[in-house]
Amino acid sequence: MLKIIKGMKKGSKPEVIEPPPGPNGPSDVTVNHASRSAIPPAAAQLTKAISRTTPHTSVIEVTPMLKDVPISERHVLFIKKVNMCSVSFDFSDALKKVGEKEIKRQNLQELVELVQSGSSKMNEIMQEEMVGMISVNIFRSLPPAAFENTGAIDGDPEEDDMYLEPSWPHLQLVYELLLRYVVSPDTDTKVAKRFIDHSFVLSLLDMFDSEDPREREYLKTILHRVYGKFMVHRPFIRNAITNVFYRFIFETERHPGLGELLEILGSIINGFAVPIKEEHKLFLVRVLIPLHKAKFINYYHQQLSYCVSQFVEKDYKMADSVIRGLLKYWPVTNCSKEILFLGELEEILDATQPEEFRRCMFPLFQRVGRCINSPNFQVAERALFYWNNEHIVDLIAQNRDIILPIIFEPLEKNIQGHWNQAINGLTGNVRKMFIEMDAELFEECSNKLLEKQAMVNERLEQRELNWQKLESVASEAGGDDMVIVN
After folding, report:
1. Which of 10, 14, 123, 157 is 20 to 30 A from residue 73's alpha carbon, by CA?
2. Do 126 and 15 form a contact (C-beta atoms < 8 A)?
3. In the record, what terms sit under GO molecular function (predicted)?
4. How far separated are the first and last CA of the chain, in Å rounded?
5. Residue 3 CA neighbour count, 13 Å, CB half
6. pLDDT score, position 128
7. For residue 284, which of 256, 319, 237 has the smallest C-alpha distance?
């Protein structure tokens, strides 16, 4: 099919912005790549680090638009605009250097439009300068988090004041410029990977600590696009994200960008080839499962649950490990967290095959039974809703001889004494389903429960008799001086 792109003429090519010719002609501006590689590696890394952290000193002044000057002059003007955009301003005072801030904003907007349109192709020097300017603006020291200011270690992040970056009018354009540069079809990965390197990726990950959700959203999109475009960086990016999670699990249990990082991972896991590699299985067991133990899991649970369920959908044999992992970190006193776990567990069971289900059904339904008896009616209701899921009911029916004896007593306990009438009704429905599945087995479980209760009552009566005998013996031996404490 022939595609017609509006505004593009057949055979048209982007203009290439080259360095200006020297006094002796174009040969004076040839980049000597051999001389660049002759620089010692350590010195080259040091130079790059300095260029990324030290802002350029430049006079902020109004300059003509790039499109309005001859091609031979655009290289110098481009570098000048980039240098001006590298200057940082104090945004805590809105009335300070208003004119200079507006000039910088206009220059950033022009650079974004230039990269987005693809009308001009940047050479290597210009790309390096631009990425250096982006680094100077983005990679900065973040202010202390709200909980660090208040000293409330266990405070709820929802109660913390949301911090919004005051320099966002400029910072947003810088992020937009970086995004357009990464996704541009004109960006050659062989050239760009010299600037978008491992150090750059680590700095991006550091910025996920920002409390500004607008910034984290841009970071998420950019890092995901970097992962997709720069294949050479993929193992490094996965390892770097893993290290962020390890620090969260074992040290801080605080990270505002965890949800965004898990969104990136969800997309990455979705692209894993089957059979899943051993390193990815270890990531599930050592990172994703332990992430469930955090107190404030509700801020990233949706993304975490998606990542975990992707593993089970790709390899059903991992269901047993995932379910046992959830049971290991099951919340005991946090009811809202328990509801999240029950929801995630249902998603996992939806993708679980009968063989894997049989491996973990005993501890699983012991936990479900406790949830059914929970005094919190939302927890009990969420557990009883499992019997509304056809796949789970089918798994239960296939293994009713094991599951019903486990779940029978909690069901009877609810019917006899749960305070919530809605829970009593749901429990009665589940009980009726078991009767319809296997009336004989249900009757057998009922008889066993009656026998068990009779034995318990007998033990209580025997213990009461033993105490009475002891009291009478003690009373006879000690006379009136002995005080019997019941």
Report:
1. 10
2. no
3. protein phosphatase regulator activity
4. 93
5. 2
6. 93
7. 319
